[in-house]
Amino acid sequence: MQTITRRFVLAASVAVAGSAFGLSPATAQTNYPNQTISMICAFPAGSGADVIVRFFAEKIAKVSGATIIVENKPGAGGNIAGQYVTRSKPDGYTIFFHTGSAVAGNMHMFKTPPFDVVKDLQVAATVNKQPHMIAVPISSPIKTMKELTEYLKKEGSNASYAINNTSGKVLAAIYKQEAGLDTVEVAYKSSADSMNDILSGAMAFAAQDPVFSLSQLREGRYRLLAVSSAKRIPGAPDVPTMTESGYPMDQVGWFAMMVPSATPKDIVDKINGWTRQVLAQEDVKKFVTDQGGDVFVSTPKEGQEYLKKEVAAWAGYVKIANIPQQ
Asked: SS3 of 110, please?
């Protein structure tokens, strides 16, 4: 015999009341938000991505009036966090705050992706775009991509370069292919782990994320030769693009807030509106710039279309970089 709890009775009463007034579950969400929102971060607490997620969680809490918490669910290249969100209730209270480029790449880097990013997730709002960077130690005599290419062609397979993530691997692979280089890739667990070899000159160059690269530039340890975006970035306006240097590309990471695809449109639009308000604030623009990025504003429809294009683009990236499927 089933035990009927007070919570069950209350829930049933609410459902009946909603039906009596002809309210659908989506219509009943017009008072959103009325409970705690969880932002899911696919990286550990204290990581660069975690810093970005927590910054925006605090900002959006202020404009929305909602209580927002950040939950870290690292692992499997973001698939653990992504799957958690796709399986959550589509009510706007579970938001996947992650790089759209990463989830797009996972569609090709895993033999059996646990979810279809385009079908199972909806981009509610985009936040920023961040290129990766080609860097050399400040002690290096190389000052341009032209000089780097000349040096690497002369050295052949005797020269090596450092990478520590997929985007850096892709950037370097595209460069190698277009320049016709035999330079050897050396993978490290993190940017910090590669520092000794880079500064000693054991690595001819590094292809790394903007947060770390810019911090080393400010500390006087790095010289930045190029960024992987189509346009120069506000945080380093003097650094040319790879395209300007003769190697056409527009390879960037971009953060977005994604929700389960069945989330009602009015909730998706509300999240988008909050994000637009936040991105218009001067201190937020400065934060994004300091992190090596540029503000990226879009409608949910535009964001979803951009995600679809990224999924298609990453098929080529994975092939060029010869990344084995997991």
From this structure: coil
Q: Report residue 191 as tokens.
A: 């940017």
Instruction: For residue 130, list its beta bridge partners.
Output: 253
Strand partners, 257: 97, 125
- CB burial of residue 319 (10 Å; 0-12, 13-18, 19+): exposed
188 within domain boundaries: yes
Residues 162, 149: one domain?
A: yes
Sign of dihedral through CA atoms 248, 168, 191, 51?
Answer: positive
pLDDT single digits (tens) 232-283: 998 899 999 999 999 999 999 999 999 999 999 999 999 999 999 999 999 9
Neighbouring CB atoms inside 10 A of 243's CB total 16
Give the N- to C-terminal CA distance of the chain in Å, as an integer: 47
- Degrees, nearest 5: CA angle 171-141-208: 25
Q: How far apart are CA 75 and CA 139, in angstroms?
A: 37
- The residue range of the domain holding 140 is 133-227
CA neighbours within 13 Å on the CB side: how many for 86? 16
Nearest in space to 265 (alpha carbons), one of 23, 21, 32: 32
Please tell me the distance from the alpha carbon of residue 271 to that of residue 265, in angstroms, as a whole number: 10
- Please check whether residues 210 and 149 belong to one and the same domain: yes
pTM exceeds 0.85, yes or no: no
Residue 52, in any domain of the structure: yes
What are the tens digits of pLDDT across the range 3-29?
444 333 334 444 444 444 444 444 445
In sequence order, which ranges of 74-228 are alpha helices (DSSP H)? 79-86, 100-109, 117-120, 145-155, 166-179, 191-200, 210-218
**Residue 322 buriedness (CB in 10 A; 0-12 / 13-18 / 19+):** exposed
73: domain CATH number is 3.40.190.150
